[in-house]
Each structure stands twice: as structure tokens, then as C-alpha cells.
């Protein structure tokens, strides 16, 4: 583990193809820039609303969401998800009433609700791994808040309509011995080619930064020496590793 850290490598303990997240070592980036941008955006009410609206806009590409309140956006998203459930129920012939599950009693849910829970959990694992690899904070969410995985849930909601919801309804049509395991394997197989990981990285960077040229992850991020700056109250950063005390004039006796 020391060799991995010193060579600029990272280790993330996950399930097969990332469908479970367990823990991680260092991030893939030497820079804290993306983390600082996330913290700055979520700490300001105006910028937080802007990012939240952008997240909803990614789900409603044909609608103008820039003037909608959070209450309106939540209502719009709720209607969209309920419509998706109905459409996939009609497509597959699976009986559907509502999203209903008990986190402490997985087996008590209907087959489709069990499949939804297992598929979503697998998706959370993949996204959690991506977030920590980029050096971002899983707990600093823009739509979700108050949970250590708030940002994980934010990002996962961008993909459920195209991934976990159709997967869950398809699984519910089949006679499988273990719905949870089947859901995890199906999500895992969807991740094999790595395309989803690339999409997830791109979307997170798009939400958190406008500088497309900044290298925040991957092997290229380690070609340059570490840069450590010192924060200055006047809004600029100054170089670290400097004995600034030598430049301070002595006070008169």
C-alpha cells in the first residue's frame, strides 16, 4: 500500500466491476481543485441552486429549468419517475403499484421493488468509487443533503431512468432464485466496457467546473510535481515552501 501511494496509484475496494464500494485509499488526483470547487459551489445558495438546476436539466434536455424553484423541480422529477415506472410496467407486464421498500427487510418487498433496491445499490457503489477517485466529497450533495452519500445520490439520479429502472423491471419478469444477486450481476455486466465510468467522470466534472483543460484525474495528473499553495485573505494564493517571515521588517523597539 505504501508503494501504491508513493507511486501515485490509488486503491478502491469494490465489488466486481465496481458494483459495490467498500473503502478507498488515496484519490487519483494530486490537486484539491475539484474538491474546493465542489465545496465552494455547495456552500453558496445561488451556485448550489444553479448546479441543482443543471442536474435536473440533464434529465429534461428539452425543457427550460433555469427559472424553476427546487419545489417545482422536485415535482417535475417525481412526475417523470412515476411515468417511467408506469411505462416499464406496461412494457414488461409487471404489476406495479408504487415504490415501496424496507431497508431493514429486503425480502418483504415485491420482486420489482427488490430488483430496484439491489440495482440502485449497485449503481451507488460504482458512482461512490468514481467520486472518491476524483477527490470529491461524497457527502457534499446539491439536491440531497444530510447524508454521507448525498453527492452519490445526486449523481446516481442522473442515470436511473436509463439503467436501473429498466433493468429492475426486466428482472422482475424472470423466474430467478436470487433477485438481488441477479440485479447486481446485470448492473455489473453493463459496466464491463468502461463507457459508463467515462460518462460519470465527464458529468461530474461538467457540473463542478467550467475549465475543460484542467487535468484532475488519470495518469497525466501525476506527471507534474505537487503544487502546494498558501491561502491568502485577499483572495489570491501564494507559493508554499517559502520562509515569508524573512521578509517581515522588525518592529521598532
Question: What report would you give on this structure?
Answer:
The chain has nine helices and four strands. With 253 residues, it is mainly α. The strands form two sheets. A two-stranded antiparallel sheet has the order 1-2. The protein has a two-stranded antiparallel ribbon with strand order 3-4. A hairpin with a 5-residue loop joins strand 3 and strand 4. The radius of gyration is 22 Å and the shape is globular. It starts with a helix and ends in a 14-residue tail after the last strand. Mean pLDDT is 83; it is low at 215-225.
Please state the overall shape, judged from the principal axes of the Cα atoms. Answer: globular
Number of strands: 4
**Rg of Cα set:** 22 Å
Task: Enumerate the spans where pLDDT stays under 50 for 5 or more consecutive residues.
Answer: 215-225
What is the strand arrangement across the widest sheet?
1-2
The largest β sheet comes out as: 2 strands, antiparallel
Mean pLDDT over all positions: 83
Q: What is the percentage of strand-forming residues? A: 5-15%
Roughly what percent helix? 40-55%
Reading the helices and strands in chain order gives HEEHHHHHHHHEE
Amino-to-carboxy terminus distance: 54 Å
Structural class: mainly alpha
Number of helices: 9
